[in-house]
Design a protein that fits this description.
Layout lengths: L2 E4 L6 E3 L2 E3 L8 H8 L4 E4 L2 E5 L3 E3 L6 E4 L5 E5 L8 E4 L12 E3 L2 E3 L2 E4 L5 E3 L2 E3 L12 E5 L2 E3 L2 E9 L2 E4 L4 E3 L2 E11 L3 E2 L8 E2 L2 E4 L15 E2 L2 E3 L19 E3 L4 E4 L13
Parallel strand pairs: 1-4, 4-7, 5-8, 6-9, 7-10, 8-11, 9-12, 10-13, 11-14, 12-15, 13-16, 14-17, 15-18, 16-19, 17-20, 18-21, 19-22, 20-23, 22-24, 23-25
Antiparallel strand pairs: 2-3, 26-27
Length: 273
């Protein structure tokens, strides 16, 4: 177990005209993972970490990957294909090894997410799709398999065929905000795979700009407690426990600002459990 650092290029990092002495920072993720070891932590220094292939965070048991400064380390899909490229926690070829992987405080751009184990976690992350998540005619993933999302925000843009926006076993959401901006969706946003378990969604607000873009089989509300669903299709128009079905009033979904406005009906409606 050790604490190590990584920068986009290794060595010194310049920000705002000042150069930090980061000669100790790795440029290789695999080297950082090896030295951090089980239950270690890898701090990502400020900057953009461009990725052109699926990124799997699976270096060791209980390893934490964390942006040193909140949302200043950017995990960026630098390709034009925003759908199938995934950010994975754990090793899907060998489920259960390693367990308890955590990704904290990142700004994550253009990735679908996939978690191998129910004990894997995304915490305090901001997920943004500045281009359409599912290019026309392409099947894409929004969330895949299990894992936990806590205090995260998701700004999703979808177009065309988005048949597997939610996929396979159910992730767990707590204290999250989720915006779906749909344009000319020809195969509505849907769920593929397991039924969402009871209690999987708590204190979480969902909003879509087009109610018709959500497939009726995407039924999340029955698993939700003290959550909000607005224009999330006929399957999420009522039900759940202490749920709200009016606009959660995000500050500005178009600019990915999913904070709640002071007048939001969600304020004061959460549960502490």
């Amino acid at each position: 177990m050790a604490t190590v650092y990584i920068s986009p290029t290794g060595g010194a990092v310049t920000k705002n005209g000042l150069t930090a002495d980061t000669s100790y920072a790795y440029s290789s993720l695999s080297s950082a993972e090896s030295d951090a070891g089980d239950n270690g932590i890898i701090y990502f220094l400020d900057g953009t970490y461009d990725q052109t292939t699926t990124l799997a965070l699976k270096g060791a048991e209980g390893l934490t990957y964390e942006s040193l400064n909140s949302e200043k380390a950017i995990l960026n899909n630098s390709t034009s294909n925003a759908g199938p490229l995934q950010l994975k926690l754990g090793d899907d070829a060998n489920p259960g090894t390693p367990n308890n992987i955590k990704a904290n405080k990142f700004l994550i751009k253009g990735f679908g997410t996939y978690s191998t184990n129910a004990t894997d976690e995304f915490n305090d992350c901001k997920f943004v799709w500045s281009t359409n998540l599912a290019p026309s005619g392409s099947t894409s993933y929004g969330f895949g398999n299990t894992g936990k999302y806590t205090n995260c925000s998701f700004s999703h843009r979808v177009t065309g065929n988005c048949a597997r926006y939610f996929s396979y076993a159910a992730p767990v959401f707590k204290n999250c905000t989720i915006s779906i901006l749909a344009t000319n969706v020809t195969n509505a946003v849907t769920w593929t795979g397991s039924v969402v378990p009871n209690g999987a969604i708590t204190n979480t607000a969902f909003k879509c700009n087009d109610n018709t873009a959500i497939n009726s089989n995407l039924t999340l509300v029955n698993s939700a407690t003290n959550s909000s669903f607005f224009q999330m299709g006929s399957g999420n128009a009522s039900g759940g426990t202490n749920c709200i079905f009016t606009d959660p009033q995000f500050v500005d979904p178009l600019t990915d600002d999913l904070r709640l406005r002071p007048s939001s009906p969600c304020i004061g409606a959460a549960t502490s459990s």
